Amino acid sequence: PQTHYEKIFLKKITLKNLDTSSSSHYAKVKNTKIKSKKFFLENLDDKNLIYATFSGKIGLISLNNFNEKNPINNNLDKYKIDSLLDIKLIKDHIYVSLSYKEKDSDNCTYFLITYAKINTEFLNFNEFYKSNKCMVNTLGGRLIDYNHFNVEGLLVSMGASDKEKQLAQDDKSPYGKMLFFDLNTKKYIIFSKGHRNPQGLIHSDGFIISTEHGPYGGDEINKILFKKNYG
Q1: Which among 211, 63, 193 is positioned nearest to 144, based on CA atoms?
Q2: Which is more confidently placed, 4 or 128?
C-alpha cells in the first residue's frame, strides 16, 4: 500500500486532572485494583475538543494548550452514574451513553442515552432512551451517527455477556445488539444481533466496523451488516 513507508511523527500529550477509576470491568474480572483514566474526546470546533470523564464530568480542552481545561456544568449528577460509556456530537447536540444505578445498593445497572443542546455554559440533559432491565454488566454503549435508508440516526452498541448472554439472541431485548435509533422519533430497530461486548464502533467509507471482546481472548473485528447475526 502507498502508506507502507509513510513517516508518522507521534507526540505524547499528558492530560492532567482527569478522574481516575479503579472499577473497570477488567479489574472486576481479575479481582485487582487497576487505576485508569477513562475519558472520551470529540472535536467541537477548530479550537476546542470536548471531553467527558467516566464519572460524568464534561468540559473543553484547548487545542493550543492541552492542559487548559474549562469545565462545563451539567445535570448528569441527577443519575447515580456507574460509568459514562461514550459521547457523540451530532449537529448542535451532544449525546451521552452511560450505565447508572437507581439505588446505591443495586448490584446491577441500567443503560441510558441522554442528549443536550450544545452550550458551553450549561448542558441540560434529557432522556433519549432508557433500558428497562437492570444488568449485571452493562457493556458496549458506543455511539456513531449513521444514515439508514435516508433516515438520520444513531447507531448504538449494546453488549450481553456471561450469565446474560442469552439476551443477544432475544429479539425482544435490546441487549447484545446494534440498535439504530431515529433521531426524530427516538424509536429503534435491531440493526444486528449476537454481540457480546462491542466496545469499538466506527463508520468509514461505507463500512461499519466493530471491535468486540471475548471472555478471555477470542476478540473480534467485525464488519457490521444490517440484519446479520454474529452468534
Answers
A1: 211
A2: 128
